[in-house]
UniProtKB/TrEMBL annotation:
It is an enzyme of class 2 (transferase). Required for the formation of a threonylcarbamoyl group on adenosine at position 37 (t(6)A37) in tRNAs that read codons beginning with adenine. Is involved in the transfer of the threonylcarbamoyl moiety of threonylcarbamoyl-AMP (TC-AMP) to the N6 group of A37, together with TsaE and TsaB. TsaD likely plays a direct catalytic role in this reaction. The keyword Metal-binding applies. Residues 31-313 form the Gcp-like domain. Substrate binds at L141, V142, S143, G144, G145, D174, G187, N279. This is tRNA N6-adenosine threonylcarbamoyltransferase. NCBIfam families: gcp_kae1, T6A_TsaD_YgjD.
Amino acid sequence: MSDQPIAKPVLGIESSCDETGVAVYDLQRGLLAHRLYSQVRLHADYGGVVPELASRDHVRKLLPLVRETLTAAGLSVDDLGGVAYTAGPGLVGALLVGACAARALAWSLEIPAIGVHHMEGHLLAPLLEAEAPQPPFVALLVSGGHSMLIGVDAIGSYRLLGDTLDDAAGEAFDKTAKLMGLPYPGGPELARLAEQGQSGRFRFSRPMTDRPGLDFSFSGLKTQVLLAWQNSDKTVATRADIARGFEEAMVDTLRIKCLRALEASGAKSLVIAGGVGANKRLRAQLAEAAQRQGFKVYFPRPEFCTDNGAMIALAGALRLAAGQLDDAQIRVFPRWDLQQLRPLQPAGGV
């Protein structure tokens, strides 16, 4: 197997949780094709992701999705120069499905494969857009499992500026929706309901904004909403008003922390990534703040905020092009510190 930087398209596989994503990315031509299969219906009856069911469904859908994506890109497996897959963090069984399939494909084709950090994929997702950020910048990674502020000195060189002390932002969205009786997945349902609510009727605290620092905590906010809901008349209008109050508190907290991080780091660019990055109110408030305060903010398109294969293909292509290869051993990391990644030293331009 050659250890020279690749110049062919890279296949990306994402299987860290409950979505099977496959994409083909070429450093010269960009994103050639991507496909996504969501397991939302499979897990809806359980009110959350069942790891064993998720793993089995990845087994069922992954290879057909690979074939479909390659056909959409007008390619065969022989046209590939490498395979990238999510190696962590995530559900261990789901990760192993993607890792084993990627390794087997790479071995059979005698091409390199590389495990990608799931959060680096999210962080680099804005590079899929025509107007892409250039380091240094601050990144807000907000999803069901993470709420982090990252200082990006260069691609592959990351500093943790702030983290959640309890619930992640997306997790708080989902749990709050569940306690108010909204269907699974709750986060998007709560955001839709909030659009119908009256602003100001319920005002909740902006956690940890009354003290210095960049860490997050959302468990107390969730408790405030629970008490407000339990003591309310539980009408449709009230539920929408509580949802509006929760979303406003969440978005305002994220906005305040982002502005603090930019000030502390001296960066002039902000990247928003992860599933909560698709939230309309968050995007609108940060875009308004950027215009008012003179920094630039970058968002992936909504379909690339949630888990997807395109971000994994991109991150893998950048690392493979820089000559970074993994050995043939299959490794996954259900927990994986983003700061442990190898710095990227590109062989050429991004």
